[in-house]
Amino acid sequence: MEERKVTSTNYENEQELLQCPVTYTLSMIGGRWKAAIIWQLTQGPVRFGTLRDRVGKVSDRMLSKQLGELQEDGLVAREAYSEVPPRVEYRLTEKGQSLEPVLEEILKWGLANRGA
């Protein structure tokens, strides 16, 4: 989540909301692309360009931003290999992998209800 001044009312409200486990979970996977990124990474480590192609119409800038936030939250790990040309892969951490059953249930719910 975006950093706020510790003395602000928004910060206090945000901290209070994060006490709720549902709100906490949604703050980690919320946003337009995070769940899709995590879902694609359940298939295993992947390079940036491949991930961008699999996720959809996400811009490089937005994908980088979302990956950075997921890294900060401990859900995604980035590994750079010292090769020519340089290679960087992204993978789910153990914490990120623990979201797979959650996303599977969201998938089931979406399939059952999107046309309703």
Folded structure, characterized:
There is one protein chain. With 116 residues, the protein is α+β, with helices and mostly antiparallel strands. The chain contains seven helices and three strands. The chain has helices at residues 9-17, 21-29, 34-41, 48-55, 60-72, 94-97, 100-113, and strands at 46-47, 76-81, 87-92. Strands 1-3-2 form a three-stranded antiparallel sheet. The mean pLDDT is 89.
Write the layout of secondary structure elements.
Elements: H1 9-17, H2 21-29, H3 34-41, E1 46-47, H4 48-55, H5 60-72, E2 76-81, E3 87-92, H6 94-97, H7 100-113
Rg is 16 Å
In terms of DSSP E residues, the strand content is: 5-15%
> Which whole number gives the mean pLDDT?
89
Give the helix level as a range of percent: 55-70%
Report the major sheet: 3 strands, antiparallel
Question: Any idea what the shape is?
Answer: globular
Our count of helices gives: 7
Distance between termini? 32 Å
- Uncertain segments are none
Widest sheet: strand ordering:
1-3-2
Could you give the order of the helices and strands?
Answer: HHHEHHEEHH
How many runs of DSSP E, i.e. beta strands?
3
Overall SS class: alpha+beta
Provide a short characterization of the protein structure.
The chain is α+β, with helices and mostly antiparallel strands. It has helices at residues 9-17, 21-29, 34-41, 48-55, 60-72, 94-97, 100-113; strands at 46-47, 76-81, 87-92.
Keywords:
globular, three-stranded antiparallel β-sheet, 116 residues, alpha+beta
